[in-house]
Design a protein that fits this description.
11 helices, mainly alpha, about 0% strand
Length: about 270
């Protein structure tokens, strides 16, 4: 009986230590962002006299990049879910020949290296005039978002009881009405889960941003930080402040949607 509390304390201590190790880069990033400009290695362990000059510089020089990332990530999430939801419904509830092979093909696309897709898109975009454009980046990020969203949504929609779908069909609802009025409302948790993760995929994208942009007209924050490093290597407070600001939308989104995400993942797992 006495061993159980001891094991509980040891587990808690191990968890705290692991959490501290995982969050140490985040703490150092925030710490350096509050230091005066200079060498990051000379920063103290705690910002005794916080300096917000780095955040002022980051907002002034990288504010447009943050807005660009937000527009591209939201556009990619909306487009990915808009395409993946009906595709997942068709694969899960319509009797389609070769649906297993289609799902296998969707899964295989996840293993294709991003640089291969980026190089192929560069040639196509050059012909279509989509380089250095919001539409081009949204479509490029959706090439990774759509397959991922299909896998998430299909796992949940397959768990929707066929009796509910058949009852709606008996009442006279067509396939589109069943999808819109029955399956989609039941899949809201999975839809939010897919939307959040496709948003995060697009928000953290660097490869497409680097390959499909030749000017600074449309520059996401990931590319902004990359170019910032080359131009201002002695201004680590501004660089880290930009990184902190780039983490805020993703962190807020995860906090707000954490219950929906947990419900969406567990429901799909049970199905």
């Amino acid at each position: 009986m006495k061993r159980a509390p001891a094991r509980g304390w040891l587990s808690t201590l191990a968890g705290v230590v692991l959490l501290a190790l995982m969050l140490s880069p985040v703490y150092w990033m925030v710490n350096v962002s509050l230091q005066p400009a200079g060498n990051a290695l000379r920063a103290g362990w705690f910002p005794v006299h916080p300096d917000f000059g780095g955040y002022a510089t980051a907002l002034r020089e990288q504010g447009r990049s943050l807005v660009t990332s937000l527009v591209v990530a939201l556009g990619s999430a909306v487009l990915s879910c808009a395409l993946a939801a009906p595709a997942s419904y068709a694969l899960a509830h319509l009797r389609l020949r070769g649906s297993t092979f289609v799902l296998f093909g969707v899964l295989v696309t996840q293993a294709v290296p991003g640089i291969v897709v980026a190089n192929a898109l560069y040639g196509a975009y050059n012909e279509l005039g989509l380089l250095n454009s919001y539409v081009g980046l949204i479509l490029a990020d959706s090439t990774a978002g759509v397959p991922f969203a299909i896998l998430v949504l299909h796992a949940f929609m397959r768990a929707v009881p066929r009796e509910i779908v058949e009852a709606a069909r008996v009442d006279g609802a067509g396939r589109l009405r069943v999808f819109r009025s029955v399956v989609l409302p039941l899949s809201i948790n999975a839809l939010i889960t897919a939307g959040v993760f496709t948003f995060l995929l697009a928000w953290s994208d660097f490869l497409f941003a680097l390959t499909l942009n030749t000017t600074d007209t449309v520059r996401p924050v990931t590319l902004g930080i990359y170019q910032y490093l080359g131009a201002h290597t002695n201004r680590w407070n501004a660089i880290m402040a930009t990184a902190v600001l780039a983490c805020v939308p993703a962190a807020v989104l995860l906090v707000l949607a954490q219950r929906r995400i947990a419900a969406g993942i567990t429901s799909g797992a049970v199905g």
